[in-house]
Amino acid sequence: MKIQFCGATKTVTGSCYFVDTGNVKFLVDCGAFQGGWEIEKHNLDAFPFDPAALDYVFLTHAHFDHSGRLPILIKQGFKGRIIATQPSRDLAHIILKDAARLQEEEFKRWRARPEQRSFNEGAASEGALYENREPMYTEEDVENLMPFFDLYPYGDSVDLHNGIEFRLRDSGHILGSAMFEFWIKNEAGRVRKIVFSGDLGQQGQRIVRDADLVRESDYVLVESTYGNRVHKNKDDTVLEFLSILKEAQTHGGNILIPAFAIERCQEIMYELNLFFENRLLSDLPVYIDSPMASRATEVFRRYPGFYDEDAHRLLEKGDDPFSFPGLHEIESVEESKRLISKRGVVIIAGSGMCTGGRIVHHLENNIQNAKTSIIFVGFQVPGTLGRRLVDGEPDVMIKGKRYEVRAKVHTLGGFSAHADKEDLMYWLRSFGHTPRKVFIVHGEEDVATEFAGQVNKELGVETHIPSLYEEITLE
Ligand SMILES: [Zn+2]
Ligand SMILES: [Zn+2]
Q1: 447 CA distance to ligand 2 centroid (A)?
Q2: Whole-number pLDDT of residue 255
Q3: Ligand nearest to the CA of 62
Q4: Ligand in nearest proximity to the CA of 16
Q5: What is the whole-number distance in angstroms between the Cα of residue 89 and the centre of ligand 1?
Q6: What is the pLDDT of residue 135?
Q7: Residue 64 CA to ligand 2 centre (angstroms)
Q8: Quick one: pLDDT band at residue 207, thresholds 50, 70, 90?
């Protein structure tokens, strides 16, 4: 049996692992690379396997860095099945449709006016991906992908009757996110166990349950996004969020929250719901100005079976965790533009790093007003407009125009859908000393190296940080 690492090696995006058991060929994830041309160019690499020869793709969760290259597989003749949870399929549908639409639009735009490459600061490299090329896929390609999904619940062992048995477990990262346990019969007829962590969530995260623990495995692939740091306390973060909102409310200006449409947006809605229901806040209209976020919220409402205990308790009390007095969901661009006249309201919009989306025109309209508060609730990649604001730059470029930053900028560090170093170590300890090897993936090289050192020292197991397209035989 061999495994080839086709992404998320010494970097956090492009998750894709190819396994050939000698009898069956499958992938775990088929995600896109993100974060500037130097990385994104790998989205155009030919796959080092034949997509038409694959039997399965096991999808850990819907995020673009895990699902983003799935439609390419179909275009290249994939005939197998995609195995995932219900929320993963529905959320992947939303994410991939949005990505296809953006690619088609950007492609048209670069074609029409190639000189207008740079939309915002931080987006300058995006054009390179589409120059003289077709978009990676279209919305139609995404629709063609959907019938390939087979849906499974957490917890059931499934025998595929070809030497592979698998089980989905909750990875506690976003709604429906999974880790995979595989029991695979190798060429010598021996069963080897291999576990793919997927992305692991932060313990105590809202809405989703904590990650399941797994006992024993011959091989483990573990993510390491935050393998070298400890998150800020979650309760402190929520209280800080409340005090920023209350303070901002007294100024009467607008409160802008740039947020990712999936998971983070629902998590913020969940906290706001608790603030309003418990009368910690009142008279503060909230606008979710992201049709994508609204569609994702529908998916969250559709699958309450995937919620944690606290969210269940709210439902039992008759409280919808994603709705509260004063909440408005904005659909059309015209409605979004009408928000310009509003004062003293909360506007939640994408993109989470302000590199595009409706948050951009809200920033244009509010950033020079000293009464405005901007609250960042997610990590900001260097080079993005969001990062410049977080770093306190006195003026920034938006759509080619310079704006003085007079708004107050706040950063909340505790909202993370990723396990930190302690959560990762806790999860790994459940394996005891059994793994012959732990592969450290989905982390920047320096972080993965530091984390590998800790795993090696504390658990006494051998670690390996694979390189892109490295192939390893699993005995
Ligand atoms: Zn993820
Ligand atoms: Zn990821």
Answers
A1: 15
A2: 97
A3: 1
A4: 2
A5: 14
A6: 85
A7: 8
A8: very high
Domain ranges of the chain: 2-229+417-473, 234-411
For residue 419, give Cα distances in angstroms to 196, 215, 272. Answer: 15, 19, 23
Residue 407 buriedness (CB in 10 A; 0-12 / 13-18 / 19+):
buried
Backbone torsions φ then ψ of 149, nearest 5 degrees: -80, 135
Measure 417 CA to ligand 1 centroid, in angstroms.
8
Question: Which residues have CB atoms below 5 A from the ion given as ligand 2?
Answer: 65, 199
Could you tell me which residues are beta bridge partners of residue 84?
151
From the CA of 346, how far away is ligand 2's center (Å)? Answer: 29
Query: Counting ligands in written order, which one lies closest to the CA of residue 8?
Result: 2
Rounded to the nearest 10°, the torsion over CA 377, 379, 383, 388 is 40
CATH topology of domain 234-411: Rossmann fold (3.40.50)
Q: How many A from CA of 173 to the centre of ligand 1?
A: 7
Residue 116: predicted pLDDT: 53
**Which ligand places an atom closest to the C-alpha of 11?**
2
Residues with Cβ within 8 Å of 399's Cβ and at least 6 positions away in sequence, in order, are: 119, 120, 360, 364
The C-alpha atoms of residue 415 and residue 424 are separated, in whole angstroms, by: 17
The tens digit of pLDDT for each residue in 23-63 reads 999 999 999 998 777 888 899 899 999 999 999 999 999 99
Other beta carbons within 10 angstroms of residue 352's beta carbon come to 24
Q: What is the pTM of this model?
A: 0.93
CA distances from 45 to 33, 35, 469 (A): 11, 16, 11
Percentage of the chain lying above the pLDDT 70 cut = 96
* CA 266 – ligand 1 centroid, Å: 15
Distance (Å) from CA 61 to ligand 1 centroid: 7
Q: Which residues pair with 157 in a beta bridge?
A: 167
CA of 369 to the centre of ligand 1 (A): 35
Q: Which CATH superfamily is domain 2-229+417-473 in?
A: Ribonuclease Z/Hydroxyacylglutathione hydrolase-like (3.60.15.10)
- Give the per-residue pLDDT at 123: 44
In angstroms, what is the span from residue 199 Cα to ligand 1's centroid?
A: 5
Give residue 35 CA to ligand 1 midpoint distance, Å.
Answer: 15
Euclidean distance between CA atoms 255 and 246, whole angstroms: 11
Q: State the distance from the centre of ligand 2 to the C-alpha of 13, rounded, in angstroms.
A: 6
Structure confidence by residue, pLDDT tens digits, 378-393: 888 878 899 999 999 9
DSSP-assigned beta bridge partners for residue 401: 398
pLDDT at 132 over 70: no
Give the CA distances from residue 398 to residues 80, 351, 384, 395, 453, in Å, rounded to whole numbers and listed in that order: 45, 14, 11, 10, 42
User: Tokens representing 188?
Assistant: 């010598």
Q: What's the CA-to-centroid distance between 466 and ligand 2, angstroms?
A: 16
The ligand that comes nearest to the alpha carbon of residue 12 is: 2
Q: What angle do CA 278, 283, 286 make, to 5 degrees?
A: 90
